[in-house]
Amino acid sequence: MLRIDRMRMQLPEGFEHRASTIARLVGVYMAEFQPSEDRTLDRLSISPVQVSPNATDQEIAHSVAERIASTLGRGT
């Protein structure tokens, strides 16, 4: 199980009004993630995710969730 207590994202200028939707969608996508091991992290940083100005909230959230999952390591 993955539990995220707090998430801070730095979005490009002009995306501020989309932040809450993108964060919610990251949570939805991460709910399907099965970590390969149990662990507790105080902090996890991911490398920047490139997004197109025309990307949908879903596309952005999926990219962020994929980067988080890759950083944590995919479960089986």
Question: Any overview of this molecule?
Answer:
It is a single chain. With 76 residues, this protein is an all-alpha fold. 37% of the residues lie in helices and 0% in strands. It has 2 helices and no strands. It has helices at residues 19-30, 57-72. It is elongated, with a radius of gyration of 12 Å.
Largest sheet: none
Sketch the topology as an H/E string, one letter per element: HH
Overall mean pLDDT: 86
- How many strands in all? 0
Coarse shape: elongated
Strand proportion, as a percent range, falls in: under 5%
Number of helices: 2
What percentage of residues falls in helices of 4 or more residues?
25-40%
> Spans of 5+ residues with little confidence (pLDDT < 50)?
none
Helix/strand structural class = mainly alpha
Question: Radius of gyration, rounded?
Answer: 12 Å
- Terminal CA distance reads 13 Å
Lay out the secondary structure:
Blueprint: H1 19-30, H2 57-72
Helix pairs in contact: 1-2
Question: What are the key terms here?
Answer:
single chain; 76 residues; mainly alpha; elongated
Quick description:
This protein has 76 residues and is mostly helical. It has helices at residues 19-30, 57-72. It starts with 18 loop residues before the first helix and ends with a helix.
